[in-house]
Amino acid sequence: MASVFPGEQGAQEVKGSIGGFDGWSILSLELYAQMAHNAEMILEEIPMSALTKDTRLHIRCDQEVRRLLDKAAAYAHMTVSEFVLRNAVEQAQALVEQHEAITLSQQDFAAFLDALDTPAQPAPALQRAFARHARQVR
User: What is the residue range of 62's domain?
Assistant: First the structure.
């Protein structure tokens, strides 16, 4: 599987030329993606308490949920705020990645690159619109 995230499990190195992209172009793209991935990893390693916090998030819950959060935070050796924030951020990152990342098979990736290299022919209506525009703009 070719992946948007090169460090991702199952991602494969792409060698040779695919759809007009040589190995260096793909390597550059993967290095850029890896830099973004590494930046995320650095942020994950910083404890939540070390980050500057400048906004508030107020959450209401019932007593049973509060007791559960207190207990879980104690087991994790965190404050309730740290516990809730860390878990909410992890869930948010996973959900955003799920909606924004695309993982393709090698065959689909090659077809995608081929489609980028082969521009679509303009539709007749578009050609007529360009001709009409050229006549009117003179």
Answer: 2-125
d(CA 87, CA 107): 36
Flag whether 131 is in a domain: no
Long-range CB contacts for residues 69-78, cutoff 8 Å, separation at least 24: 78/48
* pLDDT tens figures, 92-117: 999 999 999 888 899 999 999 998 99
β-bridge partners, 21: 18
> pTM here?
0.45
Query: Does 28 fall in a domain?
Result: yes
8-state DSSP, 61: -
Distance CA 60, CA 63 (A): 10
The number of distinct structural domains making up the chain is 1
